Amino acid sequence: MSGIPIDETGRFAGYASVFSQVDGGGDVVMPGAFARTLARRGAERIRMLFQHDPKEPVGTWERVVEDGFGLWVEGRLVPGVPRADALRRLIERGAIDGLSIGFRTVRATREAKSGHRRLWQVDLWEISIVSFPMMEGARIAGVPSENRLQRALQQTISLLKTSQ
Predict the structure, then answer these.
(1) How confident is the model at residue 134 (pLDDT cuts 50, 70, 90)?
(2) What mean pLDDT is predicted for residues 87-98?
(3) Which member of 17, 74, 100, 128 is catalytic?
(4) Sequence-distant (≥ 6) Cβ neighbours of residue 61 within 8 angstroms
């Protein structure tokens, strides 16, 4: 398995959530669900944690934006923090690559037929590096300077292959 790009300063990027896809819990995040939180809170007030543990901050998010594919994030692990140093090595080796969002639901609807919950508005609190993301496409994808469209295309192809 090849490593996932992370630069020498601990910077990495990826999708923390993918729009219009059913996650492992039956939720579907809709485009625009993060807009109010991002406008109010910005990237600097969204925490980067390990496994959603508030006792395990590992870095800072430098950019958190919605695009046509999902919630794109760019962050940096804090050097000298033991867990962050370990995560950097694990990410470099491809041993961990999951991302997951921690949020409070503000507005959602439930589909009667499937039972899936559509999340129209969420209050985003944190984004974690995780071993097993609920959203299969929520993954660390590389360093911020890479072409985001190319990464989105590769992730979409990968998701299509795994669903066959």
Answers:
(1) very high
(2) 93
(3) 100
(4) 43, 44, 46, 47, 48, 73, 74, 75, 127
Please list, in sequence order, all residues whose beta carbon lies within 8 angstroms of the beta carbon of residue 40, skipping any fewer than 6 positions away: none
Catalytic residue among 2, 17, 20, 52: 52
Mean pLDDT for the stretch of residues 109-118:
96
Question: Catalytic: 52?
Answer: yes
| Catalytic annotation present for 111 | no
Q: Which of 17, 126, 128, 136 is catalytic?
A: 126
33-74 tens-digit pLDDT: 999 999 999 999 999 999 999 999 999 999 999 999 999 999
What's the number of CA atoms in the CB half-sphere (13 Å) around residue 163?
A: 11
Distance CA 141, CA 6 (A): 9
Kindly state the tokens that stand for 75.
């962050």
Q: pTM to 2 decimals?
A: 0.85
Q: Can 128 be counted among the known catalytic residues?
A: no
Strand partners, 18: 70
Of 137, 146, 117, nearest to 69 by C-alpha is 137
Beta bridge partners of 118: 28, 109
